[in-house]
Each structure stands twice: as C-alpha cells, then as structure tokens.
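Request: Show me your protein:
***
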Amino acid sequence: MKSATIKEKILLAILLGLIAGIICSITKFGWEIPFPPRTPVRDMTNPPQQILEQLGFSSAFTHLTYLFNGNPRPIISFIMHFGFSVSFTLLYCLIAEFKPAITAWQGAAYGLVIWFAFHVVLLPLFGTVPAPWHQPMAEHFSEITGHMFCFWVAELARHDLRSRFTAK
C-alpha cells in the first residue's frame, strides 16, 4: 500500500477533526451537566456571550434562544461552543497527522493546554472572565477536567476513525 500524500493526510485530518470536534463538543456539554463551571449568576451571561458582547454584539443577540421541547436553549452560545470545539479539534487532528507527540495522554494533555491558554491566560486578559485567582475552585475543576476529558474522547474518536478510514 502506498504512503499517503501530504494533501491526503490534510484532507483526512480535516474530516477527522470535523467529526471528532462535534463529538468533543457534545462531550463537553455532557460534562457540564454534573459539573457546571459557573454559578447561576455568572452564567447569566456566559463566556461565549461575553466575548461577542465585547466585540460589539448586542445582549439581545447574544442571548437569543430557540425552543426545544418547551425549553429555551441559548443558540448563540451553542454556535460558539461548537465552533470552538470543532476548530481546536480540527487543529489537533491536523497537528497529530504530522506531529503525533500532540496526542500525549491520549489528547488529555492538549485539553489541559487549551484550558490553560484560554481560562487562565486569554479570557482573563481580555476581561471576559475573572482572573484565575478570583474564579472558584469548582470552576477550575469543571473546566480543567472537562477540557481534558473532551479532548481525550476526541482522540479516541480520531484514532479509531483514522484506523477505520485508512485500514491501518
């Protein structure tokens, strides 16, 4: 069997990233049911909504909802959540094709790095969330373990699907 070209590896990584990214996003949603990262007051405007408001979008827009089974669901937050997960899983899958070391701890190390970059550095730096020392420990627990878990699941999906698609 011939070796895959760079273009084929990139296309495979994109396909894997899209699928694993959706799985990663749904996993993170599920993680936050038993371990909500924010208090109800702090979640009235969650970080995805806050980011958009900092960029000039109205609160009315960022808090748009749709009804599912009679329950209002925050559609803009969901779009941001899925966009984040898919984007960073796609990046992970692209890097994994060429630098397999990124799969350390079966993706959990990458999740830890993503958590640190966003929840400890970038989001506090831009005033989207409080400084790390002003965030409750429960929030750190939820976000650290949630990011590690969802990227571990993304790696399981990436690895399994890659072996199925390539028969390797």
Q: What stands out?
A: The first strand starts at residue 65 and ends at 68. The longest helix spans residues 137-166.
